[in-house]
Amino acid sequence: MVRLAAVIAALERLYPPELAESWDAVGLVCGDPDAPVRRVLFAVDPVAAVVDEALAWEADLVVTHHPLFLRPVHGVPATTPKGRLVHRLITGGVALYTAHTNADRAAPGVNDALASALGLEETRPLVPADAEDPALGLGRVGRLSRPEPLSAFVRRVAAALPVTAAGVRAMGHPDADVATVAVCGGAGDSLLGTVRAAGVDAYVTADLRHHPSSEAGEAGGPALVDVAHWASEWPWLPDAAALLTAELSGAGATVETLVSTTPTDPWTLHRPAPESGTDEGAHAER
Question: Which positions in this protein are listed as binding a divalent metal cation (predicted)?
């Protein structure tokens, strides 16, 4: 029987905490390091639906990408939504661990999983994090095996990621060739300048805002492909589960893993615009 401390050590070999942003909150949120771990659930968000799933499956540990707490708190009463989650986890004997921006920068990590899901080859970090290890860094840049029109590439992205109410939207000419692509799981419009300097044909990320996107287009930047935040990070979960299993097996330990398929994207409804009369129109691709 493997102890929680050993599972945490394995996770931190895969996703070193020192790779995390200074503002981030990664690591063990709740749980006893001496407690045994038989089952580990992987999810993007530490929300009520995921806790429901963990308790129903009798998980001993939940590993999430997003932190439960990013700001300091002075208490976790069950009268608050986050406090209620902590109480439910502790009462159910379930530990919670977060790998956030350290998993974004790791290799392989969140961005490798997204790049692989889209079929990108010969990938490298968009923003390198360590001169001694060129594989580490934020985002990824890669190429498709053969160029394709933006309209086809948007369909590729939609087919590769979990379905969400908002779907996939893009900025750019539908017939423009896409050969080189940058990706950043999660909110990535802070990297628009870096992406433009990289000279890629398209950039796939989430939470793109109106003004930065408009300005990027006016500056002659790449095509932009905006996906749901949750969907952009979900491909990491199967990879993380497989890597943890391999890491523990190398030490002679085993755990059962499960990847949550519970949609935790907050948006649940989408009303598309009227058809433009062409399948390649600005709002026909979704």
Answer: 65-66, 104, 229, 233
